[in-house]
Amino acid sequence: MRRESLREYVGGALWVMPFSAGILALLVANALVRIEPVDEGFLGRLAFQGSSADARAMLLAITGTVVTVIALVLGLSVVALQLTSTQFSPRLLRNFLRDRPNQVALSVFMATFAYCGALLFSVGVGPEPEAYPRIAVNLAIVLLFASMAMVVYFADHLSHSLQVEAIMRRVEGEALDVIRDSPTDVDMDPPSPPPWAVEIPADSSGYVQTTHPELLLPLAIEYGVGVALTTGVGQHIADGSAIALIWTPSPDDPVPDLEKFEGAFHADVGIGFERTQQQDSAFGIRQLVDVAVKALSPAVNDPYTAVQAIHHMTAIFGALARRPLGPRVARDPEGPAVVVVPSRVFGQYLAKMCGLVRRYGSSEPNVMTALLRLMDHCAQIARTDPARLDALSEQARLVLEDGVRDIAQPADAVQVIEEEAELQQRIASYRMALR
Questions:
Q1: For the chain, what is the domain count?
Q2: What CATH number is attached to the domain comprising 247?
Q3: Range of the domain at 92
Q4: Which 3 state secondary structure label does DSSP give 209?
């Protein structure tokens, strides 16, 4: 769990890679200043041919230029973050902070500055100022050209990464990765905590980021108890509220050592100040819904962007429709011990997404039609699951009712009516095939 939390923090921290590159540059500079090329040798012909004063002036110019470039890059990054937050969604900021090309660009600039700054301690100073590490100065020139190339690359990458299509494509890819790696130990009829279950309080407030029932199961087996978390991944929990319930096979059995269970929960259930996509399949949907809702607001009036967001959510919901969804259950095959982690079912994912987009876009026929086509795609995949077909049918009915009520011109609502009727007929045929 500590490694998992550290990996998530390092991936989203904008300072870790640049600082690491700066430290590495200092170590490389310390090693290269010890190389003394022979003037007649191959290294001597490659070494910097100017005087120590020339080398020192060049290093000073490089450090000053790189500092200016770093300030420019950070300023552009702040503008990009502000634009993304106000125009699309504040929940997209972490995507830019985790953007690897941005971290690499800052790392090159930091390495160049640290390396040239370190060489200033060895060039043009000391009892013999003309004896300076010429090979080390060569690498400073290489880093200068690398930094200039990185400026051009960063400008190109930033301009492309601000395009709404690129933003949504990245969110879709990350969400699909989470769904692809999601566990399959799902049980639609998990055991319920009995009335004598004991509460385990949370030690902090925040969002549940990760859960690992397989890590809690050995402790449950040791005491022969059942354990059920009260909060699933992506949901908020307050300090002191019940994070889990523990129960013995009968009310007369002794209560287990609660301090041991509290320590286990605090170690094996990750709680942070923000939602992450480590195990949260709904977070990517939440980000795309934010983009769609913001595009449908009166201040923006961009329904096509909302339709694009629904297109990307179609791929995510198609992947969800292929996966087993529901509460996660880890059991002891030889005893009563069990660990239950609540999780969303397909209908809950669908209702959360359709509800928000439907309420804000009910007057736009293209948005309503895109929602119905998303559900049609899911129905074709989940045709053998009656519960998911029921959820799709219910959401299609709500889309039709809101669309017919809010679309101003009856002629504009014809397409929505026809799409909903075709979808309901298709769902009915899938139900008939199951009988």
A1: 3
A2: 3.90.1170.30
A3: 2-162
A4: strand
The pair of three-digit structure tokens given for residue 416, joined into one six-digit string: 């929505």
Is the separation of the CB atoms in 170 and 313 below 8 Å? no
Question: Final residue of a domain: which of 147, 162, 177?
Answer: 162
The reply to whether 298 and 423 lie within a common domain is: no
Going across the sheet that includes 328-331, the strands are 198-201, 242-247, 226-229, 338-341, 328-331
Interatomic CA distance for residues 7 and 312, integer angstroms: 27
How much is the pTM? Answer: 0.86
Residuewise pLDDT in 10s, the chain (435 residues): 667 777 777 777 788 999 999 999 999 998 888 877 655 555 566 677 777 888 889 999 999 999 999 888 888 888 877 777 777 887 877 777 788 888 899 999 999 999 999 988 888 665 655 667 788 888 899 999 999 999 999 988 888 888 888 889 999 999 999 999 888 878 888 888 999 999 999 988 999 999 988 888 999 999 999 999 999 999 999 998 999 999 999 988 888 888 888 888 888 888 988 888 888 989 999 999 999 999 998 888 899 999 999 999 999 999 999 999 999 998 888 888 999 999 999 999 999 899 999 999 999 999 999 999 999 999 999 999 999 999 999 999 999 999 999 999 999 999 999 999 999 999 999 999 987
Residue 177 inside a domain? The answer is no
Do 146 and 11 share a structural domain? yes
